[in-house]
Amino acid sequence: MIPFSPAMRRRAAPILAALLLLTAAPAQAAPEDDAALVERISGEVVRKLQESGALDQAIDAGIERYVAKQREAQAAAARQRAEAARSRADKMPPADPARDHIYGNPEARVSLVEYSDFECPFCKRFHPTAKALVDASDGQVNWVYRHFPLAFHNPMAQREAEASECAAELGGNDAFWRFADTLYERTASNGKGMPGGDLGALAAEIGLDRTAFEACLESGRHADRVKKDYETGIALGISGTPGNLLRDNETGKVLVRAGALPLARMQASVDELVKSAPEAGAGDGGGQ
What we know:
Blueprint: H1 6-23, H2 34-52, H3 54-89, E1 101-103, E2 110-116, H4 121-135, E3 141-147, H5 156-186, H6 199-205, H7 210-219, H8 223-235, E4 243-248, E5 254-256, H9 263-275
Parallel strand pairs: 2-3
Antiparallel strand pairs: 1-3, 2-4, 4-5
Helix pairs in contact: 1-2, 5-7, 6-7
Keywords: Disulfide bond, Isomerase, Oxidoreductase, Redox-active center, Signal
Domain Thioredoxin: 19-275
Signal peptide: 1-29
């Protein structure tokens, strides 16, 4: 049933009254079967309502209510997804210097844990932002890089992720970051890779043994490491890249900050995370 406002009811009342008179046929009128009568009355009502504009107004109002309900439902679903992501992210353990690639002070108060894809154009944009955040933090923020190659950027994203692990194997943490920095500078993104696509040449350029690097890459021995990062990201609620999690390493609190956010936004998030931590001894009288 189409709901009508009081004003629309007032406008439609004379129309309906006329139709009622119409259907109160005199005794001598030819009888109509019920279906034909209903059809004639319905058609006349619709025609009159169309002429008066009441029907259009009712339809418009119905559409507006439907759109509002859809927006409300979408917003509620987005809130539920965000809450679920926060709940999963809170389970993220601290970075492991023995395994993780860490830029900056390993003992920093805050870790920016980025789940990233070397072929993601937004990751390429965010890479210098993350570096600037750490460089300006006076040792209070570090950056942890984890792999999250997206299926539609493969096989290139997967291969580049494994290549970066070969760089780390041969040259340690510093070599990983030199390789990652240069790769992000040069890749065309979206699965296209670097012009020429010679990862061995890139390894040699940053000081690694090209033959050893290429043997490592062809062996595929770091594929499981990349897969493990990806699976861990999924478990933490990561669904796209860059998937950024800010962790207060003193309290364990985590903020989800997905996407290639600008430096000012990331800095504000770090400040929010630190300021939200309870002061030492607050609420417990300072006891142990």
